[in-house]
Write a structure and sequence with these properties.
By secondary structure, the protein is mainly alpha-helical. The protein has a domain at 11-42 and 327-531: MetI-like (MetI-like fold). Helix content is 77%, strand content 0%. The protein is built from 25 helices and no strands. 44% of the residues are buried. It comes from Evansella caseinilytica. One of its GO terms (cellular component) is plasma membrane.
Length: 531
């Protein structure tokens, strides 16, 4: 048995404390998801057949259509903006690099709040239409319907394109100028060079951004529910609200299969799209003149920024001022803010602590067991928060009742959802630390856990803290898990935005939405450095 154990770790096993913490973390991450799948498989054939006949086909169509359309248009906008900002003489191109990334810190449900205020049935444009006879003559009925597929499509496209914009920008900045010059010497013009030279190099970046967008659309609940569009996440939440937990688990399993299918397609596609720059003579890409297209392109970039950043922020500031004058920014508001910070802060600290043993074992003790622990730790990241919450309700209401109906359970749900963010940031820093430092400490008799605490953590602390900041902001914005797991009377800013918007109390929802945006700007600097 001992020989088998040593063979698993190639003769270099980790300490028992390190391995135990990593294993317990992997179990914590995966048990809720496994439990949901188990409950769904035991739902009975009648329940499955009824849902397959009545609900699932329509939900598949709605979810698939929305995911495809948002991914297609967000990729198109993101790649276009990345090209104009990084490869052309666009006016103020340096400023646009971070201005166009700002939608990343605005949760789509916050964007939905802003556009409901502007275009909704009781919104600013509706009031304008009612007050102007000539507009009523042109449009006999109010023409804007934010509560529709096109409304959801517009919101999600606006606030997800930065995933592609950032990754494509990084790829464009690293592209070697030599290849373009060779193509130009063969008589190709700029458009032909883009399609035959630049685009193949951009395909991996486009694929990475597209998969992030698709997974986000599959998992989004806030914007979709606010705009009354029915996808799997909304249907699962409302099934839980009507106490039909069995149907909720069946729908959850279908959504899990759909998510895994998207990941499988992406993995298969990525294997066939590997492009390398083999020349050793790197030259920075050339900045191309736009000529007569300079101001039309500038107008296009400005329009995207206006709709994705400026308009929502102005609307929220306007209603926040009204809310401040009305006295909504009171002790209750700051209690909601404190609840959000408390739960997100706890999730951030737990994620940093639990990520360390996993990334350390992956780097220093590679084996099949390490790979399994790492994969299980990613279980909750690719799945919607509503599914994670359902799994936790099942498990903790039966076996860990002392945690059920406490805010600690919300923090654990955030850890399951966002632990990989802390792992990725820490792993990037750990890759820069030589294993020889560990070996030197081990040769002096220090066990692995002490080496990690005394040597590794001080060396990679900036990366750990950056990962913790990402988890903090992601937790601050998480809505469905908080709605399902919060104890009675425990509200956060995300919950108040949801409740107040559904009741059209915009002057109460706007200050919380604006505060979330302001706090979310904190990790933007890290993201821009990374990409």
């Amino acid at each position: 048995m001992r020989n088998f154990w040593l063979q698993l770790w190639r003769g270099n096993p980790p300490g028992p404390i390190l391995f135990l913490i990593g294993t317990m973390t992997a179990v914590l991450m995966s048990v809720p998801i496994i439990y949901v799948a188990w409950e769904a498989l035991n739902a009975g054939a009648d329940r499955w057949l009824r849902l397959l006949d009545d609900r699932i086909p329509g939900l598949l169509w709605n979810t698939g259509k929305l995911t495809f359309m948002v991914s297609l248009f967000a990729v198109t906008i993101g790649v276009s903006l990345a090209w104009f900002v990084n490869r052309t003489n666009l006016p103020f191109r340096k400023q646009w690099q971070w201005l166009l990334a700002l939608p990343l810190v605005i949760p789509p449900y916050v964007g939905a709040v802003a556009y409901i205020i502007v275009t909704g049935p009781r919104g600013w444009l509706y009031d304008l239409w009612q007050s102007q006879r000539w507009l009523q003559a042109v449009f006999s009925e109010y023409p804007l319907t934010i509560y529709s597929f096109w409304g959801v499509f517009f919101i999600l496209t606006l606030f997800t394109y930065p995933y592609v914009f950032l990754i494509a920008s990084a790829a464009l900045r690293k592209m070697n100028r030599n290849y373009e010059e060779v193509a130009r010497s063969q008589g190709l013009n700029t458009a032909q060079i883009f399609w035959k030279v630049n685009l193949p190099f951009l395909r991996p970046a486009i694929g990475a951004g597209a998969i992030l967008i698709a997974l986000y659309v599959l998992s989004d609940f806030g914007a979709i529910a606010m705009l009354r569009y029915n996808t799997f996440t909304a249907a699962i939440y409302y099934q839980m609200g009507s106490y039909d937990t069995t149907s909720a688990t069946v729908l959850s399993v279908v959504l899990i299969v759909l998510t895994l299918s998207v990941l499988w397609i992406e993995a298969r596609t990525r294997r066939k799209q590997q492009y390398y720059q083999t020349t050793n003579t790197y030259r920075e890409p050339e900045v191309l003149p736009l000529g007569k297209w300079k101001w039309p392109v500038f107008f296009f970039v400005g329009i995207v920024f206006f709709f994705a950043v400026l308009l929502p922020v102005v609307v929220l500031i306007y209603w926040s001022v009204i809310g401040w004058k009305a006295g909504t920014i009171d002790l209750n508001f700051w209690q909601y803010a404190w609840n959000s910070i408390k739960v997100a802060g706890l999730a951030s600290v737990l994620s940093m602590a639990l990520a360390l043993p996993i990334i350390y074992m992956k780097s220093r003790y590679p084996s099949v067991l390490t790979q399994a622990i790492e994969k299980l730790s990613y279980a909750g990241y690719a799945l919607p928060g509503v599914i994670v919450a359902i799994g936790m309700i099942y498990v903790y209401s039966q076996y860990f009742t002392f945690l059920y109906n406490t805010y600690y359970l919300i923090a654990l749900a955030f850890v399951i959802r966002f632990l990989p963010q802390a792992m990725n940031a820490g792993e990037a820093s750990l890759s820069l630390v030589s294993p020889r430092m560990d070996e030197a400490a081990r040769s002096l008799g220090h066990p692995p856990w002490r080496v990690m605490i005394n040597i590794i953590i001080p060396s990679i602390l900036p990366g750990i803290l950056a990962g913790g900041a990402l988890v903090f902001v992601s937790s601050l914005k998480e809505l469905p898990a908080t709605l399902l797991l919060r104890p009675p009377g425990f509200d956060t800013m995300a919950v108040r935005i949801w409740v107040d918007t559904r009741e059209a109390i915009y002057h109460s929802a706007a200050p919380a939405a604006l505060l979330i945006i302001l706090i979310s700007i904190i990790p933007l600097k890290y993201m821009l450095k990374k990409y």
